[in-house]
Design brief:
single chain, alpha/beta, Rossmann fold, 18 helices, 8 strands, about 55% helix, about 10% strand, elongated
Length: about 500
Amino acid sequence: MNANTTGARLPSQLKTLASHLEVESQSMVELLPTFSKLDKILMGLGLLANNDSLTTRVPWWPLISVLGTYSSGKSTFINDYLGESLQATGNQAVDDMFTVICYGPADHSRVLPGMALDADPRFPFYRMSEKIEDVAAGEGKLIGSFLHLKTCGNEKIKGKILVDSPGFDADDQRRSTLRVTDHIIDLSDLVLVMFDARHPEPGTMQDTLKHLVEETVNRPDASKFLYILNQIDTTAKEDNPEDVVSAWQRGVAQAGLTAGRFYTIFSASAANTIDNSAIKERLSTKRDKDLAEIYGRIEDVEIERDYRIVGVLEATANEIEREILPALEAALKRWRRGILFGDALVFAALAGAGVALARMANFTFEQLLSWMNDPVTLGLSAIGLGAIFLFGHFWVRAIAAKMVARKLPTEIGQFGLNLRTGFEKNTRFFRNVFRSNPVGWGKRARNRLHDIRTEAAVQFQRLNDRFTDPAGRAPEAPKVMAMPTQALEPSSPANTQPTSDDQQAKAS
């Protein structure tokens, strides 16, 4: 997508986002000015283009992703949760694309192409074609072969986005598919990682475990991952679910997951295949308990979304000071060292050339002294040598900048800030080589970042006050937790009409 086109569309996109949040979550609307302040800091540092905004890189709708190995029952789980057959199911892989499911006010489901997601900043796949192009040249234009959008009129999906992934088999996945998977994991508020209990030998799937487990257990947001062993009813004949769970636990322990537990579930319709009533009751009781916990996390995902959005402000501020600025300063130091070394070479070359010319002309010491005593000749010579040195200096600056920039990432941090453009902003020909701070970073920017942290902390406190009260002064808090969607929505005019008691009091 052309940068100028993107910049022209940005105001309308931000207006659309604000309108959406006005209806869905008033508390999130209050954060938009704070995001604007953060945008200005990032633009000043050169980490964000002037026609871009961090708000376009943040999924504002609550996002739940369902990942897992092929035939692990991901689509069946989604159908059971919704109570309708929305996704195709089968023992083999039946879908090789990511399906993004969201609410649509219609009596039947509609399937929309991937470009509907790629061009809408409210969805987590905004500009996904560009990200795919970065890791697999030529495949970005094939965005429709990686994902599509499916609408659903079910009330359970209202206010949420649900992502159903294709069967995960990292041994033969294309890099582009893994890039989409990583993107989903980064932006999700809740990640359900599902495994198939019918294949209790995880040792043969080390690459899959590495991507779905090893690379997630050490994340700061590891609590959003739920590891689910599905189709546990297949153990009914042998009555050994504990052995199956233990086998999987040993496998994932090798990938680094040593704490926590598996949720063990199976499809409600599959319970009829269990003949032994005692085994059926035992497995069903355990399934119902685990499903209640999983469904509870899904219902509370709006709350986790609110904390995630506020956390973006604090996390980005921390990334700037703790990760990006040190990396930028280190790159500038390498650039300066390269310039000093190059300038020394240019100076030595000029001196050597002067000595060589003097010898070729057979200059005597008296002639050299006479030349130096002539102000016009000396001045013209100094100007000429200075011009040659300056030409060499700027040539060295450009070469050193290219060598350093080549090794810098174009995406750094959670939201892909461009460290290379930030570095290049400091290396323009009019910039002072010995500038102590990177361009865009100083007392004013530091104070602004402090204000952003303060505003984020205040918002965290507001969220905590909405759902908690250690002193026990808010008896209505548990009711708010039970209905997070209503708590986040602004009051409608219908809810603000005066009651009959109010009217009588007003009349009196």
